[in-house]
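G., the chain you wanted modeled:
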Amino acid sequence: MSHDVPRTPEELDGFMTGLAFEPAAGPREEQALLDSLPPAGSPVMVVRSLRLPVDLDQSVAAAAKAADLPKTTWIRQAIEMALAVQAEDDQPISRAEALRALTLLRPARHVA
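Predicted structure as tokens:
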């Protein structure tokens, strides 16, 4: 679809003549539009475009399905968890330190 910008007064006149405007919304349509808006004070959601490798997208889809969540909700929760882990008061440790700490844990005993 290619739209050329009018370059002469005649082209501009033809362009303006060809414009068509929709009629103003009636009271019912206007009310339906207002009713579709989120309530006042609702959090504002920002749309982001994100490129993922196909295999990662399939893994996200499977995880979201297993959690019975929409993919966008699952991704948002994963980001929130990652940010919580990286909180300012968090002290990252090395993998070796983590493995040493895990070896000191006793196995959980299951009570029947």
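The radius of gyration is 28 Å.

Shout if anything looks off.
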